[in-house]
Design goal:
Length: 155
């Protein structure tokens, strides 16, 4: 699993050292990661074969010609880059993705279980604040709903 948050330098050649924990999570026949524009946020999303297969399954749930299928194909398959680790555990991020998300000298890498995201430092700070608040609000609403259901079941 991809867990935790790391700040990593991005060198002039757009190389980033992938955290050792992340490299271990994708160990297998392909020594690297798949990256593409995230469908959920303004960042790069990445992961191993498990993530790739999950998106393939999702895309194939829709018929050819379905606008959602096309949007997913365009974003995920069309934006996909297969990045191999070098001997230092680095991958070279595609220039167009770095430009798209304003990735320059330092990036933030966020583990999300079976996937990770690569953010610009500034965008990550804004997203973290918004999502932390959404998590608090959503959890409070969920617990309130559970309490209402318990009260309704006991009457």
């Amino acid at each position: 699993m991809f867990l935790s948050t790391f700040e990593k330098p991005l060198d002039a050649k757009r190389r980033i050292v992938v955290p050792q924990e992340f490299r271990a999570a994708v160990a297998g026949p392909f020594d690297g990661v798949f990256c593409f524009p995230s469908v959920e946020a303004d960042c790069i999303e990445g992961g191993g074969k498990v993530l790739f297969d999950r998106y393939e399954t999702l895309i194939n749930e829709f018929e050819v010609g379905d606008p959602l299928r096309y949007a997913l194909e365009f974003t995920v398959r069309g934006g996909m880059a297969k990045l191999s680790f070098d001997t230092a555990g680095r991958v070279t991020l595609p220039e167009h993705l770095c430009e798209m998300y304003g990735l320059t000298d330092v990036v933030t890498v966020v583990g999300l279980g079976d996937r990770f995201q690569i953010w610009s430092r500034e965008a990550f700070q804004a997203q973290r604040a918004a999502l932390s608040q959404a998590a608090r609000d959503g959890l409070a609403a969920h617990r309130a709903q559970q309490r209402r259901q318990k009260l309704g079941a006991s009457t």
